[in-house]
Structure formats: structure tokens, C-alpha cells
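W.,

You were right to be curious about this one. When I first looked at the sequence I had no strong expectations either way, so I just let the prediction run and decided to look at it fresh. Below is the sequence, 200 residues in total, followed by the output.
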Amino acid sequence: MESNLAELCGAVMSDLSFSHKTYGEIFYTFVLGIERRSGYMDEINIMVSERLIFEHSPRINDFVEIKGQVRTYNEFAEGRNKLNVVVFAKEIYPSENFGYNENYIYLEGFLCKPPLKRTSPLGRDICDLMLAVNRMYNKSDYIPCIAWGRNAGYAEQLDVGTKLAIEGRIQSRDYRKKLEDGTSELRKAYEVSVVKLEEI
């Protein structure tokens, strides 16, 4: 089993946007919409190489299946560091099941910050986790995860350095960030919502 696996299926919600070029290879990003059973639409940022889409470039409203990995990178913008969370596509192809939504994430990594337990506005226990997942070339992705209910209570007791296996889904959510001048702005956060959590 890979230590970082993402399997997604949903609708393309944006045009391709140039991301960067490395070793002569161009990478693009686009937004994939994955509908939950509740009807809420997660909007996930996908990064894909030009070499995977030269035959069939994803267009808005196309249903596509993606296999890849959750990746993170820091970007300095507007005077602050921002953690960008994307799914890096290793395979992408048109879905034969139009309207079918899939959102599965599997991660193995090390807890790299103390867990932070809190209570949601609806009174549910939540625990924020930061998982360091190793990849090739001595790099790591620092992936925000969120555990709920009993998993939150369990996760709160874990020590930094604990190796964990996590199954869940990647989600997007809007939140309001209070600024220093007293105003607030709407921002979007991305994290892995934990369904199953165990120590390795």
C-alpha cells in the first residue's frame, strides 16, 4: 500500500490554469467538484502535468477519475505564508460513470504538531492534526487532517512523532478570518476529514 493515495471522481469546475514549469514539463491546476451525500460540494485543487492531458484536456462539466497523492507547498502571498493543499494527479481519465462521486484518501505519516482539540459550533468534538508524509527525494508533505467524535478524543492523546495510518476524504470549507484592522475576509481551507485512524 502506498503511504499517500488519493482516488477521486467528480466534475471539472474550472478551466486549466498554468501552475509552473519544471525540467521542461508544464503543470496546470484546475478545480474538481466532488459532491458529498449531504449535497455539499467539495472544491478540490488538482495539479496535473501537460503530459497526462495532451490527448484529452479536461473541460468544465466533464466527469473525470483521478488517482494521485495529496501534496502541500508553501506560498508567500499578500505578506503571509499560505499552505496550499492540492491533489497531484498521476492518472486522469474520463469517468464512465457520469454523476458518480468518489473521494478516498489513505495516508501514512508522522504526527508533527501537538493535536489541538476543540468543539464545533454544533457541539461536536474536533481534533486538528498535522501529518508529515514522506515522499521521494527526501521531501515531505505536511497535510492538515481533522478528526471527529471518538476519533477526536483518541487523537488528542497522541504524542508528536507517532506514526499513523489515516483513511478519509479531502474536503474544502469556507471560514471567516479576522484581520488585524478588525475586518474579516472569507477564505477556503482544505484538509483530510478522518474516517479511520490507527497507530502503526
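Here's what jumped out at me. The first helix runs from residue 50 to 53. And, maybe more interesting for your project: The chain has two domains: 4-100, 106-199.

Coffee later to discuss?

I.
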